[in-house]
Design a protein that fits this description.
Layout: H1 2-11, H2 13-19, E1 45-50, E2 53-54, E3 58-60, E4 68-69, H3 71-83, E5 86-91, H4 97-102, E6 108-114, H5 117-120, E7 123-131, E8 133-137, H6 139-142, E9 155-159, H7 163-177, E10 184-188, H8 191-199, E11 205-209, H9 210-219, E12 225-227, E13 235-242, H10 247-260, H11 263-270
Parallel strand pairs: 1-5, 1-6, 9-10, 9-11
Antiparallel strand pairs: 2-3, 3-4, 6-13, 7-13, 8-11, 8-12
Protein name: Solute-binding protein family 3/N-terminal domain-containing protein
Organism: Arthrobacter glacialis
Pfam families: SBP_bac_3
Length: about 280
């Protein structure tokens, strides 16, 4: 999956240029205002641990280096603007995100990280986005898919050994009880192959995580569309801070304000994400 996203991110340069995406938003903000929290790792700067390998949430605009873009990156810039501070991205591998937070390399993790009981034992998290499976299909079919039961009897593809593939397999009994045939599931090891399966007509529907699905649509305009509301979100992305940190309520309050004034919705729309998946409390 990582290789697919790296290649896809490289292919997105032109799109981002046309959209006027700028990596400098918030990076030259004035230092401090009445919203600025006191306990930042570096005064006048908010530092985010991030792994830019997961478009459309965070990735390099040129595929391998330079500006970091995506929903999380731009939401971080909006947060920096709200607090009146500069922003720094502390780039680390995915498995280094939590250690980076715990060691004080960054103030928070804003990087497509699910909340889970295990993570909440060692860190705080403010919810920011709901995630879960999404259905992708050719434009003519996408509009006909209103619920997961509409996948019964259809040729469905998902990445091998993924939770999405498991969800489709589990639907078999539900379809049978409803008097319908179980979905006909095909699995491929690479997400790029699952996309091609639908485009080439080997499968009718692709089931993928909603945030990744949004990026796939962006890269295959006119060939794939998202069928909204087929699945209910089943997980939540969070913005993580140190356990018991005074930053925790400040982060939650800031993102609540940014949701209320429409800033987060604009960022979501920019990256082809449905603003209704935003979950800020």
């Amino acid at each position: 999956m990582a290789n697919f996203f790296k290649l896809a991110a490289a292919a997105s340069i032109g799109l981002l240029a046309l959209s006027g995406c700028s990596a400098s938003i918030g990076e030259e903000a004035a230092v401090g205002n009445s919203n600025t929290p006191k306990d930042l790792v570096n005064a006048g700067q908010v530092t985010l641990c991030i792994d830019p390998e997961y478009p459309p949430l965070e990735y390099y605009a040129d595929g391998s280096g330079g500006d970091i873009v995506g929903f999380d990156a731009d939401a971080g810039r909006a947060l920096a603007d709200y607090w009146g501070v500069k922003i720094k991205f502390e780039v680390t591998s995915f498995d280094g995100l939590m250690p980076g937070l715990q060691s004080g390399r960054c103030d928070m993790i804003l990087g497509g990280l699910y909340t889970s009981p295990a993570r909440l034992e060692v860190a705080d998290a403010a919810p920011i986005m709901n995630a879960g499976p999404a259905a992708l299909a050719a434009p003519g079919l996408a509009g006909e898919l209103k619920s997961k039961m509409d996948l019964c009897g259809r040729k469905v593809v998902a990445q091998a050994a993924s939770s999405n593939a498991a969800s489709i397999t589990a639907m078999g009994e539900e379809c049978t009880k409803a008097g319908k045939s179980a979905p006909i599931l095909s699995e491929y090891p690479k997400t790029s192959d699952t996309v091609l399966a639908v485009i080439n007509g080997k499968a009718e529907v692709l089931v993928e995580t909603n945030v990744a699905a949004a990026y796939m649509v962006t890269q295959n305009q006119g060939k794939l569309e998202m069928a909204n509301q087929v699945f209910d979100p089943d997980t939540t992305f969070g913005v993580f801070s140190k356990k018991g940190s005074t930053l925790t309520p400040a982060i939650a309050a800031a993102f609540k304000a940014l949701k209320d004034d429409g800033s987060l919705a604009k960022v979501a729309t920019k990256y082809n994400l449905d603003p209704t998946i935003l979950d800020v409390k």
